[in-house]
Every structure is written in structure tokens, then in C-alpha cells.
Amino acid sequence: MKGIVFTEFMELVEGRMGLEMLDRIITEAKLPNDGAYTSVGTYDHAELVRLVQALSDASGVSMPQLIHMFGEHLFQRFSVSYQPLFADSHSAFDFLSHIDDVIHVEVRKLYPDAELPSLPCERPSPDRLLMHYSSPRGLGDLAEGLIAGCIKHFGENIAVTRTDLPKEGALHRARFELVRRSA
Ligand code: HEM
């Protein structure tokens, strides 16, 4: 997993819970590099899961809830640091339906070793979008948070229903159904 995800996570923890909490979870997580990450480096995604676990233990907030919160925050940060990727999208459905074939493709050009999920979409009707998450990393909670962040970013009224699907070999899978509501 790219270091940018780690550095954003640490900034979120430091900003919301303070440096002391950040230091504490870095110690608790027993990370190989003592929590020193560079944004362009690549690290085992299990280290992020260990940090979230330590934060969950220290704060009493569940891991899925923390990862979801982080996803929402990450999307907001992406909307600032990857601003050009937003130029052609005018709605959450527009943006989300191009993660797989445009957004993550651009991410891979920047970071050839990025570990990205597969996120194909279907649009059964103008007000419905189905997004299919599959990845060996099992970060469906992160996907859910990123989707929530995207909806917030575009300021729309969209209901999201997540269905976790059985694993297919090494792949964790989830389906997100998004329904746009009027007003
Ligand atoms: C501007 C928008 C976005 C950018 C720049 C972006 C970029 C990235 C980057 C840099 C990573 C880390 C890759 C690695 O660690 O090797 C990543 C992973 C990921 N992205 Fe995106 N992303 C964006 C939007 C989204 C959205 C809206 C979703 C919603 C479903 C999403 C789902 C994920 C997930 C779940 C991962 C974790 C890896 C995995 O599960 O396999 N991304 N993305």
C-alpha cells in the first residue's frame, strides 16, 4: 500500500486525537519501521490494519467504523491533492463510475506499484448505480467511506446499501447499491 495512505491516516489521527494518541498506537502496533512512512514508499497494507486495530483498542471505536471514517476523510484529501481528476465529473455517479477506467488508471501511472481494487460499475437506471468491489486486501470498509466522502463532496442525496459477498478464491467482494433520491 502506498505511503500516502499511511501519512494521511496519521495526519487524521494527530489532528483529531492528538500526537500522544498517534505515538501510542505506533508503539502498540509494533511496526517494523517505527511508523516512519514516506508518501511515495510502498508498505504492507497489514501495517495499516494494525494501526487501525491499535486505535480501535485505545479509543473503543470499532475497526469498521474507524476505516469508514478514514475513507471519508481520504476522499476529501484526494479532492484537494488530485484536483485535476475532478475536472470532468459533475456528480457522484459520474465520478464513481470512472474510478476503475479513469481515476485508478491515472493513479497507476503516478504509482506503478499501487495495489488497487477492481471497481466496475453498472447503471441500471439514471438514479441507480451498482459498484462491485473486489480485492485481495478486503478493504470494503475503506471503499464504503470513500463512497460516502464522494457523495458528501458532490453534496447529493444518495442512499448506499452494502452487501458483502462470499470470497472468490483470494478475493474479498462487496456490492454497493447507490440510489439517488430527489431533493
Ligand atoms: C480522486 C479519487 C481517488 C484517488 C486519487 C484514489 C487513489 C488511490 C490510491 C493512491 C490508493 C492506494 C493504492 C496503494 O496503496 O497501493 C487507492 C486504493 C484504494 N481505492 Fe482509490 N482513489 C480514489 C477514489 C476512490 C474511490 C471513490 C473509491 C471507492 C470505492 C476507491 C477505492 C479504493 C480502495 C478500496 C482502495 C484500497 C485498496 C484495495 O482495497 O485493494 N478509490 N486509491
- The strand count comes to 4
- Parts with pLDDT < 50 across at least 5 consecutive residues: none
Radius of gyration: 17 Å
Q: Helical residue percent?
A: 40-55%
**How much strand content do the residues show?**
15-25%
The biggest beta sheet reads:
4 strands, antiparallel
Note the gap between the termini: 38 Å
Number of structural units classed as domains? 2
Q: How many H/I helical runs?
A: 7
The helix-and-strand class reads alpha+beta
CATH architecture of the largest domain: Alpha-Beta Complex
Key traits:
single chain; 183 residues; alpha+beta; H-NOX domain; four-stranded antiparallel β-sheet; globular; binds protoporphyrin IX containing FE
Compile the SSE list and pairings:
Layout: H1 3-17, H2 19-28, H3 45-59, H4 63-81, H5 92-96, H6 99-110, E1 121-125, E2 128-135, H7 140-154, E3 158-168, E4 171-180
Antiparallel strand pairs: 1-2, 2-4, 3-4
Helix pairs in contact: 1-2, 1-4, 2-3, 4-7
Bound molecules: protoporphyrin IX containing FE.
Protoporphyrin IX containing FE (HEM) binds next to helix 1, helix 6 and helix 7.
Q: What is shown here, in short?
A:
This protein has 183 residues and is an alpha+beta fold. It has two domains: 3-61; 88-180, H-NOX domain.
Structure explained in plain terms:
This protein is α+β, with helices and mostly antiparallel strands. The chain has two domains: 3-61; 88-180, H-NOX domain, CATH 3.90.1520.10. It is 50% helix and 19% strand. It contains seven helices and four strands. It has helices at 3-17, 19-28, 45-59, 63-81, 92-96, 99-110, 140-154, and strands at residues 121-125, 128-135, 158-168, 171-180. It has a four-stranded antiparallel sheet, with helices on one face. The protein is globular, with a radius of gyration of 17 Å. The structure holds protoporphyrin IX containing FE (HEM). Protoporphyrin IX containing FE is lined by residues 1-2, 4-5, 78, 82, 85, 96, 99, 103-104, 107, 114-117, 119, 135, 137, 139, 142-143, 146-147, 150.
